[in-house]
Amino acid sequence: MKMAGFYDESISNGTGWRAVLFVSGCPHNCPGCHNKEAQNFNYGEDFNEEEILNRIKDNSILKGITISGGEPLCKENIPEVLKFIKNVKKIKPNFNIWCYSGYTLEELLDRKDTVTNECLNEIDVLVDGEFKQDLKVPNLKFRGSSNQRIIDLKPTLKTHKFIEFNV
Fold first, then answer.
1. Kind of pairing, strands 96-101 and 18-23?
2. What is the pTM for the complete model shown?
3. Dihedrals φ, ψ of 25, to 5°?
């Protein structure tokens, strides 16, 4: 997996102080994408998990991590994303995990594969859906277009009822 970037600290990619990992590679090719270069699976640098984990471990103000892209939940990236999330939780057990995906939750669940299901069970908040330029709303919190949802994933998966995350 390639990494399009990493922020040690951010307050604009989810609630609270969090690290942000941008993975490379995205099959959606959304018009107006704010991370166009990250759509290329060869963009950026090789993902050095050990280095990123050490940066997270050494930062005492962080409350969570956001994984964005590119597309972290595409079939090419999801195995390594899942491994990374599990390793983050080993060093920071109470870390809050946000993930941005162009796939809807329904599309991800329809895959019915172990890796996707396991990954979804590790994520606390999923911001789902492709960016739609015609639905762009500049002042939306934590999303770019009004079709995208901020899903409180654990209770949603448990109850099978969509539960929006309160921001």
1. unpaired
2. 0.95
3. 105, 125
Conformation bin of residue 111: beta by default, left when phi > 0, alpha when psi is -120 to 50: alpha
Cβ–Cβ under 8 Å, residues 164 and 152: yes
Neighbours of 113 (CB within 10 A): 12
Q: How far apart are CA 25 and CA 72, in angstroms?
A: 8
In this predicted model, what pLDDT tens digit does every residue of 2-13 receive, in sequence order? Answer: 999 999 999 999
Say which residue the tokens 């409180």 belong to: 152
**Nearest residue to 26 via CA among 112, 124, 131, 115:** 131
119 has which bridge partners? none
**102 within 8 A of 71, measured Cβ to Cβ:** yes
